[in-house]
């Protein structure tokens, strides 16, 4: 028995009070790539019959949107509801899959079976990312620029460098990072090298998320009499402008880290020990929010990343709304 099956049966035994049986299912009618990727087992659980699609290794898991497409193909083959069984699932992907209505089980962790069982408690330990897995701020900027400002597809590296303000040497390093993350390939265009992204729009965003970081390096409560350009509205203040989320008591602004420090040293604002003494919350960012912002508020994708780990479920719901509004 493969480890994922064993973990699944142990987990379901705890949930249901009895150890269910697995029955191998024929899947000859499915495309080869699905038959090679998943193992199919029938199961009776909580009074209903399901077909489980077990994916033993999903370190390079597809995005929720791609899982939705795969489930659609599988469901046409089986009369019973098809349920994904995967070893791990980040919280941002879990939320998206729940909203898409994709049934799934993460053994030992979470279950989403609409009308049968929903067990989404965060009681598991997230796997530690591999060293060097996160993109550098420069590489992250390129992805965000491509998704929000202008497509960089099939543009020569020299052209991309001019658009984003990178040196050719820096862009070569960025290109290598994106290739290592599986987010792009390179292609020859005459004497030049161009980037070809491995997916588009929302699928690219979801594929990139495990490699992206919050742009916020540090925060400071400050007194600043006239906040404004080049500081942009950020945090819950920006989210409240873009969704129905209520704003915080004190507004939040963002500055690139160099400007943040220089302004502090020149006395443009004063740091405070507590929010009671401050009139705003100031974030120091690892890249310039003006690269993608609208000269008033930070861009939606950076905003999402800055609040992705915020513990309030209401914030998570509005972040999902924010992403759904994107013109992919």
In short:
The chain has 328 residues and is of the alpha+beta class. It is built from 12 helices and 14 strands.
Count of distinct strands: 14
Uncertain segments: 123-132
Largest sheet: 7 strands, mixed
Put simply, the count of helices is 12
**Named CATH architecture of the largest domain:** 3-Layer(aba) Sandwich
CATH class of the largest domain: Alpha Beta
The shape, in one word, is globular
Mean pLDDT: 88
Radius of gyration: 23 Å
The class by helix and strand makeup works out as alpha+beta
Q: Indicate the percent of residues in helices.
A: 25-40%
Series of H and E elements: HEHEEHEHEEEHHHEEHEEHEHEEHH
Residue share in β-strands: 15-25%
Q: State the end-to-end distance.
A: 42 Å
Strand order of the largest sheet: 1-2-3-4-5-6-7
Kindly report the CATH topology of the largest domain. Answer: Trna Endonuclease, Chain: A, domain 1
Oligomeric state: single chain
Give the count of structural domains: 3
Q: Which tags fit this structure?
A:
single chain; about 325 residues; alpha+beta; Trna Endonuclease, Chain: A, domain 1; Arc Repressor Mutant, subunit A; seven-stranded mixed sheet; five-stranded mixed sheet; 12 helices; about 20% strand; globular
Can you describe this structure?
The chain is of the alpha+beta class and 328 residues long. It folds into 3 domains: 3-119, Trna Endonuclease, Chain: A, domain 1 (3-Layer(aba) Sandwich); 137-211, Winged helix-like DNA-binding domain superfamily/Winged helix DNA-binding domain (Arc Repressor Mutant, subunit A, Orthogonal Bundle); 216-324, no CATH class. The protein is 37% helix and 20% strand. The chain contains 12 helices and 14 strands. The strands form 3 sheets. The chain has a 7-stranded mixed β-sheet with strand order 1-2-3-4-5-6-7, with helices on both faces. The protein has a 5-stranded mixed β-sheet with strand order 11-12-14-10-13. β4 (81-85), α4 (91-100) and β5 form a beta-alpha-beta unit. α6 crosses α7 (168-180), α9 (235-242) packs across α11 (300-307) and α11 runs antiparallel to α12. The chain is globular, with a radius of gyration of 23 Å. It starts with a helix and ends with a helix.
């Amino acid at each position: 028995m493969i480890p994922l099956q064993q973990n699944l049966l142990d987990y379901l035994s705890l949930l249901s009070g009895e150890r269910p049986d697995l029955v191998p299912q024929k899947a000859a009618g499915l495309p080869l790539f699905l038959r090679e990727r998943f193992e199919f087992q029938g199961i009776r659980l909580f009074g209903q019959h399901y077909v489980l699609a077990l994916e033993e290794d999903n370190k390079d898991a597809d995005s929720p949107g791609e899982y939705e497409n795969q489930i659609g193909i599988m469901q046409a083959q089986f009369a019973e509801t098809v349920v994904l069984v995967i070893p791990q699932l980040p919280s941002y992907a879990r939320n998206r899959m729940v909203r898409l209505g994709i049934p799934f089980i993460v053994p030992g962790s979470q279950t989403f079976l609409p009308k049968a069982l929903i067990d989404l408690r965060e009681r598991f330990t997230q796997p530690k990312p591999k060293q060097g897995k996160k993109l550098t701020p420069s590489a992250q900027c390129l992805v965000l620029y491509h998704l929000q400002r202008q497509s960089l597809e099939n543009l020569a590296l020299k052209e991309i460098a001019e658009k984003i303000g990178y040196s050719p040497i820096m862009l070569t390093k960025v290109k290598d990072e994106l290739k290592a993350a599986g987010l792009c390939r390179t292609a020859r265009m005459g004497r030049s090298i161009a980037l070809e992204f491995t997916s588009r729009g929302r699928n690219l965003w979801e594929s990139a998320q495990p490699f992206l970081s919050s742009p916020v390096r540090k925060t400071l409560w400050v007194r600043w009499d006239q906040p404004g350009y080049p500081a942009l509205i950020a945090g819950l203040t920006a989210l409240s402008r873009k969704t129905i989320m209520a704003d915080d008591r004190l507004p939040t602004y963002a500055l690139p880290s160099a400007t943040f420090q220089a302004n502090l040293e020149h006395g443009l604002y004063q740091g405070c020990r507590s929010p009671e003494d401050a009139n705003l919350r100031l974030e120091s960012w690892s890249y310039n929010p003006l690269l993608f912002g609208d000269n008033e508020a930070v861009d939606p994708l950076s905003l999402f990343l800055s609040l992705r780990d915020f513990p309030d479920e209401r914030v998570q719901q509005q972040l999902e709304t924010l992403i759904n509004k994107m013109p992919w």
